[in-house]
Amino acid sequence: MDSRNGSEVESFFESAPSLKNANIVSQKLKEFIDRNSRSSESGGPIRVVCVTSGGTTVPLEQRCVRYIDNFASGYRGAASTEYFVKAGYAVIFLHRLGSCQPYCKYLLEESFLDLFELAEEDKIEVCQSHGAEVKKAIREYHAAVDEGQLFRLPFTTIFEYLQLLKLVATSMSPLGSCGMFYLAAAVSDFYVPWQSMAEHKIQSASGPLDIRLTQTPKMLSVLRKDWAPFAFCISFKLETDPDILLQKANAAMNKYHMHIVVANLLATYKQEVIVVTKEGKASIRKHGEHDDVEEQLVNLLVEKHSEYLEKPETSLNGA
Ligand code: 9Z3
User: How far apart are CA 260 and CA 303, in angstroms?
Assistant: First the structure.
């Protein structure tokens, strides 16, 4: 990490409003990781993945009325969580509050109330048309929770997200290479530092508004170097211009020492992603109407993680 980024990272965390319930979250995280890091039935260590999902907000006022948001529904993170659980991973689902949740993907298009109807004696029943998918979702969701494979952690602002990511990463550090980060959340590149933010609602009577946004410090390199130096790290690169996508993905891989960067374009991200590694690139495409790219993507990443576990790496900070 260069020293300028280092001091920006420090001042970000020093000036950010402190996390609510940080001690409780930290204790619960520790319990979840301890439980899952004990040997599995097959004798092998259990793998734990932190899936980040949804977009961060950038508040413009401390008593926030207005904010800037990042594009992301949370579908990718929610769907991928399901596939990681299926592959035997324990998942820390760090998600934007109110975004798409695992096992509830269909709720994105449907109103919750469309799933139910009133039956005799005012009993509530699931509509016949949705019966099969709701039953499957309930079974899978409860299995994941009962087996202790799913831990959900919500965020809204960039301040909450980065503090939680640091907490999760440092808690996962003892897992070494069994830990994985799947960073699908859309994280704002710019923010208003807390100390230079208006306290109260900005008044329109003062005329047009000029806002100066500061660059968010680059946390990926800190994650790799200091927070969880042996974990397997996958970040996502979202662009709108196809001509720069791969070049930006490669640059992110080299600059932040990611093991894999998943490149996608806003116009086609639901149909295609490109998995970029040091060895080359592979495209993953959606086949039919009822499947998604996340299943193939997660299967490939699980394979890559297994290969990584076979040849452990020396850490970037020389430890
Ligand atoms: C992604 O590129 C994700 O694939 C999407 C998923 C946000 C497009 P949805 O939640 O969408 O299924 O609706 N995420 C990363 C976006 C991002 O902010 N990446 C940063 C960048 O591109 C690097 S961390 O610079």
Answer: 12
What amino acid is encoded at 68 in this protein? Answer: I
Q: ipTM value of the model?
A: 0.96
* 261 in contact with ligand 1, CB cutoff 6 A: no
How many CB atoms within 10 Å of residue 98? 10
Residue 167's nearest CA partner among 24, 15, 38 is 24
Work out the percent of the chain whose per-residue pLDDT is above 70. 94
Contact 178, 37 (CB under 8 A): yes
Contacts of 228 (CB under 8 A, 6+ apart): 169, 170, 172, 173, 175, 179, 181
Spatial neighbors of 209 by CB under 8 A, at least 6 apart, are 202
For residues 60 and 158, the answer to whether their CB atoms sit within 8 Å is no
Looking at every residue in the chain, the average pLDDT score rounds to: 93
Question: By CB neighbour count within 10 A (0-12 exposed, 13-18 middle, 19+ buried), where does 222 fall?
Answer: buried
Q: How far, in whole angstroms, is CA 20 from its chain's centroid?
A: 20
Tell me the percentage of the chain whose pLDDT exceeds 90: 82
- Ligand 1 binding pocket includes 72 (Cβ within 6 Å): yes
Distance of CA 32 to the CA centre of its chain: 17
Q: Is 264 in the pocket of ligand 1 (CB under 6 A)?
A: yes
- Report d(CA 194, CA 177) in Å as an integer: 35
